[in-house]
Amino acid sequence: xxxxxxxxxxxxxxxxxxxxxxxxxxxxxxxxDLHLICVLKGSVVIMAxxxxxxxxxxxxxxxxxxxxxxxxxxxxGNIKILMDIDEPIKDKNVIIxxxxxxxxxxxxxxxxxxxxxxxxxxxxxxxxxxxxxxVSEVDVEYQGFSxxxxxxxxxxxxxxxxxxxxxxxxxxxxxx
Length: 176
Ligand code: IMP
Ligand code: MG
Hints:
The protein has a six-stranded mixed β-sheet with strand order 4-3-2-5-6-7. A three-stranded antiparallel β-sheet has the order 1-9-8. With 176 residues, it is of the alpha/beta class. The chain has three helices and nine strands, in the order βαβαβββαββββ.
């Protein structure tokens, strides 16, 4: 079987959307401190671009690594923090930056966990959203693209840890 990746969202379309997301965030937080939390590893690419699309806030970057355990193919509601952020977020404006929201399980647990730390505000920004796959409801304040239930790679997203470096988003298929 050969893995074939076909372009689905171009790098120009991504850049335009990320600029819009940055402008929306600027409108909401202009002049304030803003703490972005990147959920590794997939979100590292959108984190780097979104942070630079925010022009009117003092942006702080944080990185967190979580794993969901339970079944091997689907994310579960159990998450383990592999690496936590190294600063308290109490009374701070926080945005969790995600590459994609699928079932929403990981994110809804993560959001509750961070909410318990008492931030001033806590919102979610994601480049991609697959609403048809949602199992756990989670509010998404800044969304790039809503996409159908298909597996995508590139711009941070992987298949078996590959393709994260593509500068576009592609659909992957398996052919003879
Ligand atoms: P969930 O929302 O808890 O189900 O998990 C979302 C995570 O699943 C994302 O952060 C990705 O790591 C992964 N994921 C979901 N859909 C895709 C996809 O289409 N391509 C690559 N990774 C995906
Ligand atoms: Mg992720």
